[in-house]
Amino acid sequence: MKKSKITVKRIWKKETIAKNNEENSVSIPLDLIREILTRLPAKPLVKLISIAKLWYSTIRKKDFTDLFLARSLTRPCFLFTFSHAAANRFFFNSFFYKPPSSLHRNTTSYTTLDQDYTISTPVRGLMSCQNGSKVVIFNPSTGQVLALPKVKTRRKSVLSFLGYDPVEDVYKVLCMTMVQVLYQHRPFVWGEHQVFTLGAETKEWRRVDCHIPHFPATLGLCKDGVVYYGAWSDSDRNESLVVCFDVGSEQFRCVKLPNDVEIRTNHRSEVVNYHKRIALVEQSYGGVVDLWVLDDVEKKEWSKKYLVVPCWNDLVGQNYYFRCRGTISTGEFVFTPHSQPNPSFIVYYDLKKDSARRVEPEDGFPITNVFLNHVENPMFL
Fold this sequence. Notes:
Elements (H helix, E strand, L loop, with lengths): L1 H23 L5 H9 L3 H7 L4 H7 L2 H11 L4 E8 L4 E7 L6 E2 L7 E4 L3 E2 L7 E5 L2 E6 L4 E4 L10 E8 L4 E14 L2 E12 L8 E3 L6 E2 L4 E3 L2 E7 L7 E7 L4 E6 L12 E6 L2 E6 L5 E9 L4 E8 L3 H5 L5 E6 L5 E5 L8 E5 L4 E7 L7 E6 L7
Parallel strand pairs: 3-25
Antiparallel strand pairs: 1-2, 1-26, 2-4, 5-6, 6-7, 7-8, 9-10, 10-11, 11-12, 13-15, 14-15, 15-16, 16-17, 18-19, 19-20, 20-21, 22-23, 23-24, 24-25
Protein name: F-box domain-containing protein
Pfam families: F-box, FBA_3
InterPro entries: F-box-assoc_dom_typ3, F-box-assoc_interact_dom, F-box-like_dom_sf, F-box_dom, Gal_Oxase/kelch_b-propeller
């Protein structure tokens, strides 16, 4: 009899607890859950999907990614890379623009990538990274890496760019394998061009035609479905131009630069964002910069801007070479070091106010590279 009493008592307690839980439970609308999740950094979302099926089904849906990205695009930030020679790794973290005297991280954790890769400019939060014929897509917000099929080529010179087509809502990787041949007794660049579409059913590289002989000379910048990059018409660098690759149509065209404007090596020339327009920067020392702004792609019209940052030597000293990286959402120009000063810092320049300021990351790590207008993307690869 004692055992049965105990059993009945335990069952009564369980039933009472379950009843109380049902009465006290609150059903949170799914729309509210999604709204809360979009306000989190992308990195914690990776952990949340392993906790419950609800999180998994919500976060992995494309409509959630679109909602998160729509919010993220309104709050662009810096993406900093730090190198660690002993670990042979790149460390990535994003920093907000706005603090006036220091840069504050979006998250306290870092994502990492093998240092053997050459890193491209982020496109909507994703990066194309390359090591020879091996190309991977890297999401620095989540730390995920997607290895693409190896590029089919025997050539050693392989270059890749990531682009996004807003019409079809797809990412594509453009890969070029270059070789130099002789044509009419002068060096001539000839290349094979291949495209890989992320998420396509056919997981392979496709050949595309390019009738513009050129050799890429800068990193690419994707804007409104077009990848822009500086190039030379041949390996003798007789003519400089900006090549435009339409991600949707997979067509190439070029815009010649004004006379006497040449693309130089070692980041002395870069394609940058200038108030949502494409511009070519000609770097120089002492805070002096020439900017060629592409005003009209169809008419191939350029205009020149000339910048002189005040009190430059007081801000950075005389021994460091800085690169103008373009403008950010605040309208300010950003300058980043070519080599690493100690402590690391960057320079903001407000053209309207003609004022400049020096800003340091809050943790003081040596900066390897800085990418502007980066956005967090929760997309799972």
